[in-house]
Design brief:
By secondary structure, the chain is α/β, with parallel strands linked by helices. Helix content is 24%, strand content 21%.
Length: 276
């Protein structure tokens, strides 16, 4: 993997090629497998602000060149090994992974696992052995016999609305999940969900979608960062984009934080634009 942006002051420029051309950084052309520590450093959460804990919500998604977030209903076919290493690292840095119920069903979600490579880093950050999985679900139509509920290292959270069916809430709690009310009706209010998770001590938030959930988070203006892998594939078809749902009144601008590349895949990181 090689870094395309930013170029640091420690990067020496090479001599322009014969015939002219801008100087380029050797680091930008260095192709090698990064260690998990290097990936973790590249994707570190912002340092916490002293005082009241402030949540930071990042999304991690993958898209093809023509904008498809899935192929045959799943994201795995458009991903690759390095994307999955970044996926695992982002999970290892998070307090909680926020995911929509449909994505849980389609992707066959399992509990997050403890990773020995990140034990020291998580301990230093005051985190437990693994992030919790937090499922956003209005109807709680979930299979509570799955390992996500029967054998998680950290109890699974379910975010739902106050009008959710009491029998489904009872079934979830009986299965060992912790139900968190984050809406007055059937659905979940994104801003309230973020506040609820922060109230439980989860400030390093990661969402893996799906597109419908990400669209809701974008519309609610609670997304702080997008980590997007651009896969060098074309799929055509009618697959979803990375974010769905109604349009926002004014497009939200984000700023490029870093850009990595390997084998044609681009690994970008954008944060909310704060202005000049």
């Amino acid at each position: 993997m090689r870094r395309l942006f930013p170029v640091t002051d420690q990067t020496a420029a090479r001599t322009p090629s014969e015939g002219g051309g801008a100087a380029e950084a050797p680091e930008a052309h260095e192709v090698r497998e990064w260690s998990l520590d290097e990936i973790a450093d590249a994707y570190a959460y912002p340092d916490p602000v002293p005082g009241e804990p402030t949540p930071w919500l990042r999304a991690n998604m993958v898209s093809t060149l023509d904008g498809a977030a899935q192929h045959d209903g799943r994201s795995q076919p458009i991903s690759n090994a390095t994307d999955m290493r970044i996926f695992g690292t982002l999970r290892a840095l998070a307090d909680v992974v926020l995911v929509g119920a449909e994505t849980v069903r389609q992707e066959g979600y399992r509990p997050a696992r403890a990773r020995a490579e990140f034990t020291r880093r998580r301990e230093a950050a005051g985190q437990g052995p693994a992030p919790a999985i937090a499922i956003v679900s209005a109807g709680l139509e979930l299979d509570f016999s799955l390992p996500l509920f029967t054998s998680p290292l950290v109890p699974t959270l379910i975010l739902t609305g106050a009008a959710a069916a009491p029998d489904r809430i009872a079934a979830a709690e009986k299965a060992g999940a912790r139900v968190v009310i984050a809406g007055d009706g059937m659905g979940v209010e994104p801003a309230r969900a973020v506040r609820a998770l922060a109230g439980l001590g989860h400030t390093r938030l990661l969402t893996e979608g799906g597109p419908r959930l990400l669209g809701q988070l974008v519309a609610a203006e609670v997304l702080d960062e997008l980590c997007l892998t651009v896969s060098p594939l074309l799929t055509a078809g009618d697959a979803q984009r990375i974010a769905g749902g109604p349009s926002v009144a004014v497009p939200h601008r984000f700023a490029l934080v870093s850009l990595l590349e390997e084998d044609g895949f681009l690994y970008s990181r954008y944060s909310r634009y704060r202005g000049a």
